[in-house]
Amino acid sequence: MRTLTLLFTLMMLFSGALSAQTAGELLRKVSVALSKGQDDYAVSLFRQSANAGAEQAEMFYLTRVEKDSPVAPRLANELAAYYERKRSYDKAYLFYREYLQYHPEEISALVSCAGVEMMRGKEKEAMRIYEKVLLLDTDNLQANIFLGNYFYLQAERDKKKLEEEYKKISSPTRMQHARYRNGLHDIYYYGYAKAKEYLQKVIQLFPSTEAESLLQKIAVLQKEME
């Protein structure tokens, strides 16, 4: 029993020693693979190196990879995906943007980049990217879901703010009331109506009870605000 325990301990220590060098060893193999034109193999090795040592892999990409080479965007995408999995969203965003310089209209990369922007709290930036996605693919489910919810929530915030300001007026004049009604009208058409368009598309693509619920609320608001 002691012999087995000792053997297991030695194996673990040996494995740890190997893993400490894994990133460097893998990146050396990446260099060899690239020199031989074995791009697919190089990308596979690079993916492993990122998992073993992301900082080393990132430095390799920044200093050792020709940015005009066909493999460069693939390696950038590997780093972006790695950092997204690790929830390092700032770095993931940087490498998705790097990848999109090579492939500005690749929908999957745009969707990933928009998702990372959302996780970074950059909702407006995510909205712009998703709008670009829909210019390329009107049936993209993720983009329609995000934009439907985005414009609905934005309209909800604007409506709440307008109503709070109006309630502060103890005796509103006819002009003030007219401005309030015009404000509601604008919020509907520039917020809820846009949300409705995207949410209806979601229903066409996917049976979403959440989207149906929001559409029902918008229908009620339409009667109140128009």
Describe the SSE topology:
Elements: H1 2-35, H2 39-52, H3 54-64, H4 72-85, H5 89-102, H6 107-119, H7 123-136, H8 141-167, H9 174-205, H10 209-225
Task: Explain what the structure shows.
With 226 residues, this protein is mostly helical. The chain has two domains: 16-137, Serine Threonine Protein Phosphatase 5, Tetratricopeptide repeat, CATH 1.25.40.10; 142-225, Alpha Horseshoe (Serine Threonine Protein Phosphatase 5, Tetratricopeptide repeat). The protein is 84% helix and 0% strand. It has helices at 2-35, 39-52, 54-64, 72-85, 89-102, 107-119, 123-136, 141-167, 174-205, 209-225. Helix 3 (54-64) runs antiparallel to helix 4, helix 5 (89-102) packs antiparallel against helix 6 and helix 6 (107-119) packs antiparallel against helix 7 (123-136).
Number of domains: 2
Q: How far is it from the N-terminal to the C-terminal residue, by CA?
A: 81 Å
Structural class: mainly alpha
Amount of beta strand: under 5%
Major sheet summary line: none
| Order of helix and strand elements from N to C terminus | HHHHHHHHHH
Regarding CATH, which class of the largest domain?
Answer: Mainly Alpha
Helix content: over 70%
Number of strands: 0
Mean pLDDT score, rounded? Answer: 91
CATH fold-level name of the largest domain = Serine Threonine Protein Phosphatase 5, Tetratricopeptide repeat
Oligomerization category of the chains in this entry: single chain
Full CATH superfamily name of the largest domain: Tetratricopeptide repeat domain
CATH architecture of the largest domain: Alpha Horseshoe
Low-confidence stretches at least 5 residues in length (pLDDT < 50)?
4-20
Q: Output the number of helix runs.
A: 10
Radius of gyration: 26 Å
Shape: elongated
